[in-house]
Write a structure and sequence with these properties.
The protein folds into 2 domains: 60 residues, Roll (Thiol Ester Dehydrase, Chain A); 142 residues, Roll (Thiol Ester Dehydrase, Chain A), CATH 3.10.129.10. It has 1 helix and 13 strands. Strands 1, 2, 3, 4, 5, 6, 7, 8, 9, 10, 11, 12 and 13 form a 13-stranded mixed sheet that branches. A hairpin with a 2-residue loop joins strand 10 and strand 11.
Length: 231
């Protein structure tokens, strides 16, 4: 598994409970190490409380037909887009968002009650570093949930499971920006799905994601403005 030729191809995380700030223990296990593909599991816990379970697939390149029918969104570059989606006074900004720079390119604004649950924009780390599989997995969970563009009331959202497929070897855009697009086609029985894509500026598809989230109705005083947030 440590031969350097295998890269992350798929990472699936099941969120069991919200973590708290503090120490955590991660137990990693190689479930299987085949000739070209290996599977690794990781269990994160805090004290006796399980927080997350992860399964990752690492593999060498394989021969086969190659095509990408997905189309990169045609939107202005990051310098021509406004900051967002996390704007002061509009959303309760999660601590994680402060580690990134965001630029809003397309889709309904938060709390606008839009007709679709979809958003597109640019993202990069506030502190530059090479774009690798670990960063791509972070990017797909560092954007505002698209559900917030379709609602007006106070809703929270918590991830049940998240799967990320890494589709291209790491790249390093000159300015660090990657383009992301997320959409949801269904919110049923208090659970919302979300599909995502991460693109390099040159049109290379870097990663795809699929997430299931549970919705949480937030209670607020009658005089307070509606504000969704992550739980």
């Amino acid at each position: 598994m440590a031969d350097g030729a295998r890269t992350a191809r798929s990472v699936t995380v099941h969120h069991l409970a919200p973590p708290v700030v503090g120490l955590a223990e991660v137990e990693v296990r190689i479930e299987r190490a085949g000739r070209s593909l290996g599977s690794v599991s990781a269990r994160m816990s805090q004290g006796d409380r399980p927080v997350a379970l992860t399964l990752g697939a690492f593999a060498r390149d394989r021969r086969g037909p190659s095509f990408v029918d997905a189309v990169r969104p045609e939107v202005p570059g990051p310098d021509a887009c406004e900051p967002g989606p996390f704007e002061p006074g509009e959303l309760p900004v999660p601590a994680l968002a402060g580690r990134f720079e965001h630029r809003w390119a397309a889709g309904p604004r938060p709390l606008s009650g839009g007709d679709v649950a979809e958003s597109t924009g640019w993202i990069r780390l506030a502190e530059r570093r090479p774009i690798d599989a670990a960063l791509l997995v972070t990017y797909v969970d560092a954007w505002m949930p698209v559900l917030f563009g379709r609602v007006r009331g106070p809703w929270g959202i918590t991830t049940v499971d998240l799967t990320v497929h890494v589709r291209h070897a790491p790249v390093e855009p000159p300015d660090g920006w990657c383009l992301v697009r997320f959409r949801s086609d269904a919110s049923v029985d208090g659970f919302c799905e979300e599909t995502g894509e991460v693109w390099a500026p040159d049109g290379t598809l870097l990663a795809q994601s699929r997430q299931l989230a549970a919705l949480v109705e937030l209670r607020r005083p009658a005089s307070a403005p509606p504000q969704p947030g992550r739980v």
